[in-house]
Amino acid sequence: MKTKLVAVLMSTVLYIPLANAESAPAVTVDRVSVFKVPLVCPAAPQIGCGSASKPILLDLERQPGVLEAWLNRAGTRIAVVWKADSDAETRRKVAAELKEDRATELDGNSRDKTVSDFLSGKGWYHGAEVDHLSEEEASIIATRLVRFVKAKTTLATDKAEALQRVLNDALRKDLTGEYARLNQKPRRLEDIAHDYLDEEQIKILRQAIKDEEAIESGERPAPREG
Questions:
Q1: pTM for the complete prediction?
Q2: Most CB atoms closer than 10 Å: which of 29, 94, 161, 226?
Q3: Which tens digit of pLDDT belongs to each residue from 149-177?
Q4: Helix (H), strand (E) at residue 125
Q5: What CA dihedral angle connects 169, 172, 177 and 179, to 10 degrees?
């Protein structure tokens, strides 16, 4: 039964997930290649890293023969949708470039399962849409920083909530590249926090920031959330 189902899928015209319904081009399964990638977010292992994957996806979409490039929510798979006129040599060149980013092209059952998941239209991010993952990461980090401060000192609820908002906003601008687009220098988180914390609390926050930097560099794992 499974073999027959795969055969049906291979011969059926399917639509690219998440694209605008009015402009979504019809794409056959043989025009989708999928790759295993190491793009999990160190600070939030439950999601992919938007800031790391965004330049890869955008560069892919500038390559001859590539129609669209997508990342799955987990940050473990990239799907490349080829243009109708792409040839085997073009695909080989793109695959070779992805290999330099430690990507491995999938085949067999792994490919079939990933393509099926991709074509379901759920949990995949196209090009710059991975900014949504960066926004989630910013929220997770901001929440963790404030939680660390609250665990070490007394912090009023209104101040904690306001601090979390400004830290979230600064992290979001940094991770999505908004600071760079506006030609602005990213603000140091501890400088932003001076409006909400005293000097002793700033020292606590500084330690929390160092811990986050260690997570980002892979020196320590992210704590379990929840």
A1: 0.86
A2: 94
A3: 999 999 999 999 999 999 999 999 999 99
A4: strand 124-126
A5: 10
Cα distance between residue 98 and residue 131, in whole Å = 21
CA distances from 9 to 25, 69, 72 (A): 17, 21, 20
Neighbours of 214 (CB within 10 A): 13
- Shortest CA distance to 84 belongs to which of 32, 136, 21? 32
Which pLDDT tens digit goes with each residue over 213-225? 999 999 999 987 6
Q: Which two tokens stand for residue 133?
A: 């993952």
Q: What are 35's strand-pairing partners?
A: 78, 105
Packed helices 157-176 and 50-60: angle between N→C axes, nearest 10 degrees? 30
Residue in 9, 1, 2, 4 with CA at minimum distance from that of residue 119:
9
Which residues, listed in sequence order, are joined to residue 68 by a DSSP beta bridge?
Answer: 81
Decide if 171 contacts 142 (C-beta within 8 A).
yes
Largest CA distance in the chain: 67
